[in-house]
Specification:
Helix content is 19%, strand content 46%. The chain is α+β, with helices and mostly antiparallel strands. It has one domain (2-64). The longest helix has 14 residues, at 30-43. It is elongated and about 45 Å long. It comes from Edaphobacillus lindanitolerans. It holds the Pfam family DUF2922.
Length: 72
């Protein structure tokens, strides 16, 4: 089952921005994820429409299962 960690941020302009991480480490805690998200904000590397990331909004792990029915 494929898993993705979806990190939601708000920019200084109020826009929601999502970053995703494929196959996140098992057993992540909310505190660990928040700490890393705050480090991403502090780095100033990401933003949208000229506004830097400003605050942590959401974080969730999405599990996806794919069943192939026909394969060529």
């Amino acid at each position: 089952m494929a898993k993705t960690l979806e990190l939601g941020f708000l920019t200084a302009g109020g826009k929601k921005v999502n970053l995703t991480v494929d196959e996140p480490k098992e057993g992540l805690t909310a505190a660990e994820v928040r700490e890393r998200m705050e480090a991403v904000i502090a780095s100033g590397v990401f933003g949208a429409e000229g506004h830097p990331l400003a605050e942590v909004s959401t974080a969730r792990i999405i599990a996806r299962e794919v069943t192939d029915l026909i394969m060529a």
